[in-house]
Amino acid sequence: MISAYIDRIEGDLAVLLLGDDMKKVNFPVSCLPEQVGEGDYLKLELSYDKEATEQAEQEALDLLKE
């Protein structure tokens, strides 16, 4: 789980500060929950989608065979 602080919103992008090191990243506002805004904290969870990766790899292989 990664903690993220919404530092500011600039148009369609939110500037998030991630983790203890407060690494700055831009994130689409459209992907944020509706009720959050500047000064709020988020919990981000990233996980590997093995199934989607394997499907994309297979689709790429299928295109190469054509």
Can you describe this structure in just a few lines?
This protein is of the alpha+beta class and 66 residues long. It has one domain (2-65): Beta Barrel (OB fold (Dihydrolipoamide Acetyltransferase, E2P)), CATH 2.40.50.
Architecture blueprint of SSEs:
Layout (H helix, E strand, L loop, with lengths): L1 E9 L2 E6 L4 E6 L12 E4 L5 H16 L1
Could you explain how this protein is built, in words?
This is DUF3006 domain-containing protein. InterPro entries: DUF3006. With 66 residues, the protein is an alpha+beta fold. It has one domain (2-65): OB fold (Dihydrolipoamide Acetyltransferase, E2P), CATH 2.40.50. 24% of the residues lie in helices and 38% in strands. The chain is built from 1 helix and 4 strands. A 4-stranded antiparallel sheet has the order 3-2-1-4, with no helix packed on it. A hairpin with a 2-residue loop joins strand 1 (2-10) and strand 2. The protein is elongated. The model has no long low-confidence stretch (mean pLDDT 95).
